[in-house]
Design brief:
Blueprint lengths: L11 H21 L4 E9 L5 E12 L9
Antiparallel strand pairs: 1-2
Length: 71
Amino acid sequence: SSITLPNDAYNLTDIKEVLKEQAEKIGLELKREKKYAYVIAAILKNKDFVNTSKQLKLINPTNDYLAKSFS
């Protein structure tokens, strides 16, 4: 699942809020479909359209967005 923000985001707090909202949405979708995920990934694109990504492989699969967060 991905989104494009209507405006550029410069504030880390705002970016974290968007990531949290996406995690909640995906977690609810996984629960509804009775599915689990082993990998959590986030890709951010800067103003020059350069991607920065981070992913985390979980030991135990989850569909709970509160189970693990990026630091």
